[in-house]
Every structure is written in structure tokens, then in C-alpha cells.
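Q: How would the C-alpha cells look for this protein?
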Amino acid sequence: MSKVGLVTFFHSNYGSVLQGYATKTFLQKNGYEPVLIMKDTFGEDEADIEANRKKHPEFMEDFQKFMASLSGNNAIVSDASMAQIDSFVRDELKPTQFSLAQLRELAEGDGFSAFIAGSDQVWNCTLGMLSPLFFLLFAPPKKRIALCPSFGATNVPAYLRDDLKTVLNEYETLSAREEEGVAIIKDITGRDAVRLADPTLLLPPEEWRKFAGVSDSDDKGYLLLHFLNAPNPIAMKNIRFLAERTGLPIKCFATRHREFEDIDGIELVDGGARDYVRTINNAGLVCTDSFHTTMFSINLNTDFYSFDRQYVHGVSQISRITTVLKRYGLMERLILNEEDAPDPEHLSIMTDCTATKDAERQAIQSYILNELERVTA
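A: Here is the predicted structure in C-alpha cell form.
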């Protein structure tokens, strides 16, 4: 059985955990032995930081801004929910910790046939440097697979463009999760990249329902709120409208925001990864600012509305959600402004995007299998 190293984000939030779980599960189902790789401090050693500081005078300012943003950008997740997320990572994802030196040695040997980077924002260049871990710089180019990584932004710092071009050109095949990522790769390298869906789509809805212990016929009895950051006034206005219009009781999953304290009868619900999927599946309507909650709502055929997320660092990443909704013909499910208010007569009439989902799922599955066949040939 070929051993495959998986380098991705898998901490602190349901989306990251479950996209890692989906990739690992898909690899196992297809005869591979996936090993989720863990490296502290984003895979950056002090030597790498110092080398980038000397090479790029602008680097340190961007690096410090990025690290400072992490402390203020976390969702207000309850301790009970975070403990269950951590338990799932420990007991089911089972990451293995390596140093970069160990990874270089392993990558040069025959123990691992391939290393996969992605998905999520593993190629986020706002860090100010190219992560040796997440760009797979420790591995021979032949063993590197880019699985729909996200850059998390629409551009790359100017001083990193040449470095990024060199690294990307070492990949035989390139892919990205968003059209913006495809455009960045084209702009910097002149090469075409494959745009692929988020890995959570690797598993069809029936597999996610089995994972969560639910069925498609379960009652849809509540309005679910899942906001990673505090909801803005437009979101709050529409939440109240939707609650009144549908008559559904309101549940808030895992996160705690002051804005929700004034909603009468709201139920605060905690849970782990399986609870997250079950709660979305069984909702009559979902309101969210989360990319992955939007993705799971689409995959599970749950009615939803998505809102702009109020990132603490002030840089909107709504393009991730907009790209997905355009692809599935669901732009009416996005509420950004007053004029985007939902149509009262069509609250639960969603466009049927089954054919698009099936095609997206087939594309990402085929890409992974073809890439693994290529690197092991």
C-alpha cells in the first residue's frame, strides 16, 4: 500500500477538519495509506524566517501583521465545541508530527510515494514567505501534488512573485480551489491550472449523512446560525426576518456572539465534527458567513443564505463563497446588501445543482487519482 503524506490545515474549525477528513477517507478508499502531517508554527523554522528577512526587506512587516492577525481572527467557539474538535483530530485524523529535517529525509527515501498539499488556504502568501511545509519544498518535485490549494487572497506580495514562480514551476501539474487562484498561477507562471472543488465534495451527501448518523428524511425543524465572526447588521436584520417568516426556532451552533443574545428563545448548541454535519443536514434553513458551512449546505441539499464575514483583519474573503455560488447557480442565496433581501415567496426553492455537484465531484476525484498514478509510475 503506497503511503501518501497529506499537508493541510486541520485545526480549530470544522471546515478545515472535515476537508482533511474527506481527503484522507478518499485516499483510504482507493488503496492508499494517508498520513496527515503535522508541523508546528506553520512549518517555518527560525532559520527560514531569518533567511526571508535578509532576502526581502519588506517581509518582516507582513510576517508580523499576519501573526498578529491570528490572535484576533479566531471564531468565538465554545470550549466544549473546541474540545470535541480536538478530540476528532486526535482520534480520527491522527496527525503525525515531523520536523522539516525528518520530512526531507523521508521524502528522499521510498517510504512515501507522494505528498499532497491542500486544500484550504495552504498557499496563503500574506504570511510574507513561502511555507516550506505547505509548498512541499521538502519533497522532490516529482512527489509533489497540489490539491486545489487556496491563496486566500486575490494577489501576491510583489517581492514574492519571483520566488513563487520558481516554486510553482517545479510542479508538473497545478490546481487551485478558486478562479482567483487559477488567475494568480497564470499571471505569475503563464501556466494553466485546473480549478477544483473543495475536498469536502469528494464525499457525496449519503456518505456524509452516514458519517453523521442521519438520513435525508430527517425532520428539518429549525433555523441554524453558524457565524465564524460577529454577524453584521444586514445579517441580523435578515435573520430576524427569516425567523419570523418561517416560524422556525433558532439554533446557534458552536460559536458565541453578543449580537445573538437579544434573540428570544435562541438555543446555543455545542458539538463536534459529526454534530456539525448532522446539524446542517437537519436544519430547515441555514444562515452563515462560513465558506464550509455554505459548501455543506449545498452538498447536503439544505436551504441556506450566506452573508459577508466580518474578518478581524478587515480583508474580505467573500470571493470564495461568491465563486461557489456562481458555479452552482445559487447567487440568490448570497445577501451582502439591503437589496439582496430574500424573496418571501421563494425562501425554500433552491436551484437544483445536482448535475454540477456530480461533475465537480468527478473532476476532483479523477484529478487525485491521476496525479497519484503519475507520481508512482
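The chain has two domains: 3-202+358-376, 205-353.

The longest strand covers residues 33-38.

Upvote if useful.
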